[in-house]
Amino acid sequence: MLAGGVGGARFAAGLVQVLPPEQVAVIVNVGDDFTHFGLHISPDLDTVCYTLAGRENPDTGWGRADETWHALATVAELGGPTWFRLGDRDLGLHLERTRRLQAGQRLSAITRAVCQAWGVRAQVLPVTDDPVPTRVRTTEHGWLDFQDYFVRRQCAPRVQDFEFVGAARARPAPGVLEALAAAEAVLIAPSNPWVSIGPMLAIPGVREALASKTVVAVSPLIGGRAVKGPAAKMYAEMGIEPSALAVARHYQGLVHGLVVDAADAALAPRITAATGQAVLVTDAWMPTPARRRALAQVTWDFAQALRLAARG
Amino acid sequence: MLAGGVGGARFAAGLVQVLPPEQVAVIVNVGDDFTHFGLHISPDLDTVCYTLAGRENPDTGWGRADETWHALATVAELGGPTWFRLGDRDLGLHLERTRRLQAGQRLSAITRAVCQAWGVRAQVLPVTDDPVPTRVRTTEHGWLDFQDYFVRRQCAPRVQDFEFVGAARARPAPGVLEALAAAEAVLIAPSNPWVSIGPMLAIPGVREALASKTVVAVSPLIGGRAVKGPAAKMYAEMGIEPSALAVARHYQGLVHGLVVDAADAALAPRITAATGQAVLVTDAWMPTPARRRALAQVTWDFAQALRLAARG
Questions:
Q1: CATH of B1-312, one of 3.10.290.10, 3.40.50.10680, 3.90.180.10, 3.60.110.10
Q2: What ipTM is given for this predicted complex?
Q3: In a designed cystine with A88, which of A34, A196, B70, B140 is the match (CB 3.0 to 4.6 A)?
Q4: A25-28/A123-126 β-pairing
Q5: Is the pTM of this model over 0.90?
């Protein structure tokens, strides 16, 4: 599966209840990685690892459970930037990852070690070990670094364009193409198509690896709104009416099936007519572990059905 | 005054009770600075700032009061190094200092900002803004980085030599030579002469700036033993019997007076005979704020008396 942050992590947590975790590979966006206070921070990767390790903050979806904020309190006393909420337990991962990167280890190897230490049995793969920082062009401020746009400015600026710096020269991390080649089906989590899935598809080899696979996406938009994050706002600002249909068009030529919420059932015929995608209508909101499992189960079954149909 | 870590910080805390804090400049060793997890850490400077800010851990002398250890607990879970005890509140300072250094600010300017934020009215000056990492040559392991020797190996290896890398080309930080030039007297805290005071004296201009001043040192050795740290062990391993007399000889030609503990009263005549230094015998152990103040008071009065005597 391909995953961004909170939506991707929650879908992954469902999928490892449906399939043997060892048979699940979660390929994660690193376009939102950045350096802050000299530390390498991988927000999407962290959210996926914390969630699969059962260490996530269940209220926010990001960050650690039982977190404390003493380091950031010191930063605040000293007048430093506090817009990116770094908890103390969370900082430990950034410290150790930065230490290993500076010692020459690859992000993918570090992620494997982190998952092993925390008993995560699924394979979690950063899509690439190369830096591919996402930038967002905005009406008000021109090009912004992603976390500046996303966290510091809370997605308030109006987007005009996206850039995945370095993506054209990036190589998929070890294991990524292998996992895609071995996959029975590829599921695209209900993550932001613009800034979570898009940066991964921009890396040479990833989109191509999907071409021979049954691919099913879960719409991150429900009733024209994003469960979390700026996906709907981005569609509107890019001149596209935000809806599950917009998501279907976004993934046109890439996915064979789209999972949409019951609130969007009426769009199903239009989606199929416009894109040729099969549509599965279900409850696509995942506030609880049981709902994550249920969504992963129907999505996986849907993908298997499409795969067998394509074969037959 | 010249200061290393805990002994220097405690003496400084006494001195700002004796003199108006605004008239006290504390010039601090940075030979023990190092980079850990990508963060710039200045242990002696931190200990001085925490102590003068009333934020120090009163039990250890280093680190912050009311500290938590959640970041390091994560590092431990991930198999990372935990030999350098980084608390969560402490980390906040390292984060913000590293951020400012990477933004081009000087260590001295950052230290000024930290002191201002915490209401420290004394002037705290890193002796230099240039890197001057201390290395220790040991019988067992050859040359070791200072914190590797000092913290990781807990001073166990046998020392043969010291090196202050880059010191010969380092420049005193802005304010250092000015503070020394303006000083009525210079006090050398009961810090380690080898690795706390020595690195500062190795920077061109510092020793020279003391030449025209009345300089009084407080012996860090009491009854041949260091109150804290490896000073006595270092003297022995360098082939010198550890004692207040050894300290006097170490500072020969530099200081006019030495403050020794009552336990070393019998050494006073030998010190004066061997080095020409005046000796003041007092209670040189500072377990409480009152004792820090008392030691600073008699040391300052001693320096003033020597200054007036030299003048007259």
A1: 3.40.50.10680
A2: 0.94
A3: B70
A4: parallel
A5: yes
